[in-house]
Design a protein that fits this description.
The structure is a homodimer of 191-residue chains. The radius of gyration of chain A is 17 Å and the shape is globular. In chain A, the strands form two sheets. In chain A, strands 2, 3, 4, 5, 6, 7, 8, 9 and 10 form a nine-stranded mixed sheet that branches. In chain A, strands 1-14-11-13-12-15 form a six-stranded mixed barrel. The first copy, chain A, is built from four helices and 15 strands. Chain A folds into two domains: 73 residues, Barwin-like endoglucanases (Beta Barrel), CATH 2.40.40.20; 109 residues, no CATH class. The model of chain A has no long low-confidence stretch (mean pLDDT 96). Chain A has 191 residues and is mainly beta. The longest helix of chain A is centred in the N-terminal third of the chain and has 8 residues. Chain A is 15% helix and 42% strand. Strand 13 of chain A pairs antiparallel with strand 13 of chain B, so a sheet runs across the interface.
C-alpha cells in the first residue's frame, strides 16, 4: 500500500473570527490586535485579546480572537460548549454560517449581538495544492485519519480543504482532542 | 464476513460511586439513595442525589451518585473535566485506582477528602457470558467499534468486559460522546 502518510494534528480551542466592524464595536474604532501566536496556516494568528460569549443566562469567558479580519464574524465552539450554553449549534465547515444561531459578544469597549455565526467547526485536513497533489488528494475529498494514543480513534470522513494559502495539518476541536487524548506533536496517519 | 454486529452505545456523564462509609459522612448515617434511573447494567442505578467535587479553588457541582455501594469510592470524570479542575487524572478501567489522585467530595451533611479514586474511565464493551460467547469474544479482548454519525468515529482497542452481571452495551464518556455527536439510541458496529 506504499508509504505511511503522517500528518500533524492541531487542536483548536473555542475562538472567534471578527469582522472589522464588530472589532471596532468590541475593542474601539480602528483597534489592531496584538499577535499572541502565529498559527500553522499562513497569515493566521491568535490575538492577545479575548472576549466573552453571552447566551441568555449562560456565558463563556476568555474566548480567544483569531486574525486576520473576516467579512463576517464567526464563533467556533465545541459541542460541550454548545451544551453548556444551552444553544443548538450545527456542525458546519468554516465560512458556512447558513442557519447558524446568533450570540452576544462582549468586549472591553462594547457588545455585538450577532444574528448568526455560531458553529461547531467540522474536522478538516488543510493542504496546499502541492501537498494535496503529492498525497493524491483534491479539495472536497473525504479521508480517514487514525490518531494513535492510549485512547486511539480513527476519525472518518474528514474533509480535505486545499488552497495555496494552506499548509498540511489535521484540525480537530477540543471534544475530539480530549476524546483521543491529544498531545502536542501527535501525528495522525491516513488510513 | 458474516452478519453486521451492532451494539447499543451509552454515554456516561461524570459520576461517583461511594463506599458506605463515605456515603454516611456525605449524606448522614445509614442514608439510602433514592433511585433516579435504573441503568442498563443489572443492579446499577443513578441516584437522585448529587455531590460537589472540590479541587483547590476549582469545583464541579451536581455530580450524580451511582449505586449500589462499592468497597472504595471512585470518581469518574472526562478529560475535559480534568482540565477544568487542573487535575492530572489517569485513564483507567473502573476499579483500578492505583496511582489515581484524590479529591474532596462535598455532600449535604459533610465532606470527604479522598486520597485516591479519581479516574478517566476507559471506554469498554460490557457483555454477559452468553453474549460474549455468541459474538466470539472473551474478557480482556480489544475490539474496534464504529459509531456512525455526521462526525463518525471508530473507537479502537475497546476492552471487552465479560461478567454474568453485565449486559451488552458500549460505554463511552462525554468527551467521546460529544466528539462523535452521540444521540440516544445510536448503535455502534463491530469492525
Amino acid at each position: 500500500m506504499g508509504e505511511k502518510i503522517q500528518v500533524k494534528v492541531e487542536a483548536s480551542n473555542r475562538h472567534v473570527h471578527l469582522s472589522r466592524h464588530d472589532a471596532d464595536v468590541l475593542f474601539g474604532e480602528g483597534y489592531e490586535f496584538g499577535v499572541h501566536k502565529e498559527l500553522s496556516q499562513p497569515g493566521q494568528f491568535s490575538a492577545q485579546d479575548r472576549i466573552t460569549l453571552v447566551c441568555e443566562d449562560r456565558k463563556i469567558e476568555n474566548v480567544r480572537v483569531l486574525g486576520p479580519f473576516r467579512d463576517e464574524s464567526q464563533v467556533e465552539i465545541s459541542r460541550t460548549d454548545a451544551f453548556n450554553l444551552k444553544l443548538n449549534v450545527p456542525l458546519k465547515h468554516s465560512g458556512d454560517l447558513e442557519g447558524s444561531p446568533g450570540i452576544t459578544l462582549v468586549g472591553p469597549k462594547g457588545r455585538v449581538k450577532l444574528d448568526r455565526g455560531v458553529i461547531i467547526s467540522h474536522r478538516h485536513l488543510h493542504a496546499s495544492e502541492d501537498e494535496a497533489g503529492r498525497l493524491g488528494l483534491k479539495h472536497g475529498d473525504l479521508v480517514n485519519l487514525r490518531v494513535p494514543s492510549i485512547k486511539e480513534i480513527i476519525f472518518n470522513n474528514v474533509m480535505v480543504r486545499v488552497s495555496s494559502d494552506y499548509k498540511l495539518a489535521f484540525h480537530i476541536d477540543f471534544d475530539d482532542a480530549n476524546a483521543c487524548f491529544f498531545e502536542e506533536g501527535i501525528l495522525a496517519e491516513l488510513v
